[in-house]
Amino acid sequence: VRLVRRTIFTTRSIEEAEILPFSRVPLAPFPILSRPDLDVGAATTARPQRLQWRRRPVPRRRPACPHALPAGSYRSTQCRPPALPTSQGSASSPVQPESATLPSPRTQHRCPTHHRLTGSPKMSDGEELSDRQKREIAVWFLSNAPAGEIHYVAKDVRALLGDEAVYEAAAAEAFPEYNKAHLVSLELPDRSGDLIITTYGELDKNNYLDPRTAQVATVDHIKQNCTKLRPAADEELPSAYIEEFRSALDVELSKYICEAYPKGVCAVYCTSGKDIDGPGADFGLAAIISAARRSPQNFCNGSWRSIWTLEFNDGSQFVEIKGKIQVGAHYFEEGNVQLDTNIDCKDSTILQSPEDCAVSITNIIRHHESEYLSSLEESYLNLSDATFKDLRRKLPVTRSLFPWHNTLALSLTRDLAKELAIGK
């Protein structure tokens, strides 16, 4: 037992462990007592006592090789090279270079004398992350927050970081991308409507165009509100010919939103050809729909986002329609259940007058969104009977159905009585 304990608990590897006969194995203390990360009770030389284990913080260990660098350390030192033979055949003293090359973080340095790996890219236990790594982790958490919950996540991330500068850098990077990805809608300062944060209306980092009111709003991404409002310049707006198609589609789409999404908003942007003054050229529009329902007091939030790109081809007299619908939901009462699903749609219609095109395009959008919503509802109805049932084992290990009609046949007490003749 003492030999095994000496071999297992030694700080050295098993290949380097000194195997002693039983008569030469010392009774006290074992090499484990010299480990800096463990505090054990003293053992007497007459009879070893039970070791008392008490954890304490692990200090930075001294590397086994005197020339090796600790893991993650990149000081301007280098392991001493082995001695080289001279022309007379004698070994010369090792030469230490004046300026040593720093080891690459992605490469491992092998000490030729002690054969230990140093300069590993992996961080040792207790080593703190750099500010850049902390910022990247914080950005990931903020960007992947469920719909309408980024401020709750930001509060926890801020407390975990404990560094205001790192948090502000992460928030400045994550909040704009989150707002554009989730099509967050903000109320305009004059309460004339709602502004959708989207790349189609982005003029610069903080200024976004509202095509319905022909205004440009300055947005505070972190606070998620509009701070300033100004009239849009002429070069920021489409031509009168394009505006006819855009405004007609905006009117029809708003009617559909009022019917389908009580708290939804929509906007129509010109994506290409905004300077066209008449028929004979191609142009493009983008219809954005954003609806969110937030009920944190009931532990649930959800969002519906759809983007429809419209290509008006004057040559073929057709309008190509491509859409992407994204649905997200989060239910977190005594658990954490999230839904994140999307679907791509494609359709077309005939290029007509602005009013007729608007009605036709809106009907196509209504058809695809209603069809997708029906498919989601149908999948929910079959969730318990089909999906969850398929997760269970079809048959038990015996490969036979359980005899519910004769459960006494599998009585364990009856089988034991037969085998052991109990009760006779």
Automatic annotation (TrEMBL):
Gene3D superfamilies under this entry? F-actin capping protein, alpha subunit, F-actin capping protein, beta subunit
Please verify whether the record's keywords include Zinc.
Answer: no
Alphabetized InterPro entries for the sequence: CapZ_alpha (IPR002189), CapZ_alpha/beta (IPR037282), CapZ_alpha/beta_2 (IPR042276), CapZ_alpha_1 (IPR042489), F-actin_cap_asu_CS (IPR017865)
Keyword Phosphoprotein recorded: no
Q: Which PANTHER family match?
A: F-ACTIN-CAPPING PROTEIN SUBUNIT ALPHA
Which family does the entry's similarity section mention?
Belongs to the F-actin-capping protein alpha subunit family.
This one is known as: F-actin-capping protein subunit alpha
What is the protein's species of origin?
Oryza meyeriana var. granulata
